[in-house]
Amino acid sequence: MQNKTIETKISIYKFNELNSDQQVLINKAKEQVLNAYAPYSGFDVGAAILLDNGEIVTGSNQENSAYPSGLCAERVAMFYANSQYPNVSVKSIAIAAYTNGKFLPEPITPCGSCRQVLLETEMRFKKNIEILLYGTKKIFKIENAVQLLPLCFEKKSLQM
Ligand code: THU
User: Which domains, from first to last, does the chain contain?
Assistant: First the structure.
């Protein structure tokens, strides 16, 4: 029997320790919570994606009375980016959440389905996607999507 331990590296920042690209992206994600449609959860999420051509694409969570038909902010933004710019890789994504009249103090982390979608884009362009998770007390920086989804199912798992 052997054991294997997989570690995830998380760098913890204060806002003013980030570079200007990162600060801009977080501010865009924070602005996006205003566009969330979340009447069922009251949990407004914003995502902002910096593409390698310098464009920023944003998204917010969009809920539905048929609950599973809704979509998280990260996937709204990522699918929009990939459909509008199918040949452009993604440099980074920032995510922020707002509920009960304030941004969350702790960073919000993407759900499993969003992690899978981030991973697909990372693998598709063979380029790490930096992930910035905003909280008012601290910001997590994760260097790529694989860190968030170890032991992942991916294209090569299909043995195509
Ligand atoms: N949500 C996101 O948009 N992103 C996340 O990372 C976590 C959850 C949304 C889905 C749903 O509209 C609401 O937040 C509550 O789960």
Answer: 10-154 (3.40.140.10)
